[in-house]
Design goal:
204 residues, alpha+beta, GMP Synthetase, Chain A, domain 3, Ribosomal Protein S8, Chain: A, domain 1, 3-stranded antiparallel beta sheet, 6 helices, 9 strands
């Protein structure tokens, strides 16, 4: 978690300074006072160490639950952390899943991006977050893997490159990963967002 050390005249000032520097909610900051020293020989000050103290899984769950409650959307939120990869996984199930997913999964992707940025603000390490709504992403991943395999076989047979459009960065990663070990084809992402495409090409 994030940590910083600085001088302040008291714990109240230290908490304000820490919140501003770390850019996190002060309720998630723990302070420890290291020693006292004289500042310019006029005022007594203290050296404080401020450490972010929060469970990111709980923080993500709370954010999603409160956001959905504010939107008056009935839902069930699940949260777990993958012990192998460290990924924070969240799942929402609601009678309003289509609304929360959005066209082409854009609303879902927006939720996930905001959630990842929120949790990353509390950590100085890379935070991996996956959000799914009504198994949309799980089903979409399965569809993408089938599409990737089918297209790759056609490219390998005809030696003609194929382009997959309208895929976001996460979906392109799914295809890249699925085809990464194929010997006779290669995959590249080309162009600029939001019109970036994935191209499956024959090798050689």
């Amino acid at each position: 978690m994030k940590k910083t050390t600085f001088e302040a005249k008291d714990s109240t000032e230290a908490l304000k300074m820490a919140a501003a520097e770390l850019r996190v909610n002060p309720q998630y900051i723990s302070l420890s006072q290291e020693d006292k020293k004289s500042m310019l020989g006029l005022k007594k000050s203290a050296v404080f160490t401020a450490t972010v103290n929060v469970n990111l899984l709980d923080l993500g769950y709370k954010f999603l639950q409160e956001t959905l409650n504010d939107l008056e959307i009935e839902s069930k939120v699940q949260a777990e952390q993958d012990t192998e990869t460290g990924t924070y996984k969240f799942k929402i199930d609601s009678p309003h899943n289509p609304l929360l997913i959005g066209r082409g999964g854009k609303t879902l992707q927006g939720f996930q991006t905001y959630l990842r940025n929120l949790l990353s603000a509390y950590s100085d390490e890379h935070v991996k977050v996956v959000l799914d709504i009504g198994d949309y992403k799980e089903n979409r991943n399965r569809q993408l893997e089938i599409l990737a395999t089918k297209t790759a076989k056609e490219v390998a047979r005809t030696k003609i490159a194929a382009t997959l459009k309208d895929l976001n960065s996460y979906e392109r990663r799914i295809v890249h990963a699925k085809l990464s070990e194929w010997r006779d084809i290669t995959t590249t992402s080309e162009g600029e967002e939001p019109n970036r495409t994935l191209v499956i090409k024959p090798k050689g």
